[in-house]
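Late entry, nicotinamide-adenine-dinucleotide complex.
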Amino acid sequence: MPNYKSAYKRILVSGGAGFIGSHLIDRLLEQGHEVLCADNLFTGSKRNLDHLHDNPRFEFMRHDVTFPLYVEIDEIYNLACPASPVHYQHDPVQTTKTSVSGAINMLGLAKRMKCRIFQASTSEVYGDPTMHPQKEDYWGNVNPIGTRSCYDEGKRCAETLFFDYHRQHGLDIKVARIFNTYGTRMHPADGRVVSNFIVQALKGDPITIYGEGQQTRSFCYVDDLVEGFIRLMATGTDITGPMNLGNPVEFSIRELADHVLDLTNSSSKLVFEPLPDDDPQQRKPDISFAKDALDWEPQVQLREGLVKTIGYFDHLLRQNYAL
Ligand code: NAD
Ligand code: UDP
Ligand code: UDP
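Prediction complete; structure with ligand written out below:
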């Protein structure tokens, strides 16, 4: 009898209408897979998926991951969760529920389907780190009761659940710790630093630097990140993570502002606003694990990625996109 079993999978992407999720879906469809996107559109937008309307291998489902989901799939990427501090602090209880109850439901689904599951974790599990750069074996420095805690502790608890389902139920897990990622399809009113600075510069509005701008971040272009996801998901069952995925080149926020002003040719002025509570002072991934295990490292350097992202926002603003 011929073997009709396909190499292509039916893949669930939760949070797939968001910035990173929509890019991931494009990659999975390009590879020939079927994709089911489950998203409650809290921060995501159907606009990010507009170009997929006529693709018969793509399906969108409006669904909140804090509720159970019974579908038939071969693999899961769990990305559902607001990622910008402005958004995750808007309804902090829902943020923790999304990370924790959402992880339980996605893990329950993976257990029933006996399928591999990927978790979009975050560098925020390291909090305001005392180890620099951050390696995966660092346990972090996280305030459990602050305004960022709904996100940080929610994501930490989700990691705990992933590793307990792995140990207790033998689940095949892949946990990625994502560092600041930027690129096309970020929401212009998302509140994160790259989108804020670019939109402000293009509109000629003041560039809002929180604190003195000496805090650092390491910015990864979205295409590099998605490549890391695909490679991590393709590893053998011995690799569970957690694995740092990010660009290890570190910039101060002030330096980022200078690059954006230069590349947009903008005359926007800098304004200094108070630093938010518990804002990490420094962040830079040690990516040696990903380099060894995935033969992966980011290819797109900051200015190149900023040019692409500026082009995207420029186009949006010219269309009079409602901010
Ligand atoms: P995003 O806000 O653009 O995307 C998140 C998506 O999740 C949105 O489409 C949103 O509508 C959806 N969502 C939120 N709550 C949901 C719920 N309860 N049920 C179903 N869908 C829900 O953010 P992003 O930058 O694309 O982030 C994607 C994932 O990567 C998140 O889990 C985030 O925590 C993680 N991450 C991102 C970064 C980054 O720099 N972008 C860094 C670390 C981790
Ligand atoms: N779940 C789901 N889809 C499934 C299977 C489970 O959403 O296909 C949810 C369900 O809400 C359940 C949770 O995942 O409460 C955890 O499932 P698990 O089997 O681990 O636990 P139990 O059902 O025993 O509580
Ligand atoms: N930030 C800033 N101006 C802004 C938005 C953010 O100076 O308009 C700073 C913020 O205080 C933080 C860094 O930029 O130190 C990155 O912020 P973002 O919200 O993008 O991500 P985080 O890494 O803090 O989750």
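The chain has nine helices and 13 strands. Will revisit in the morning.
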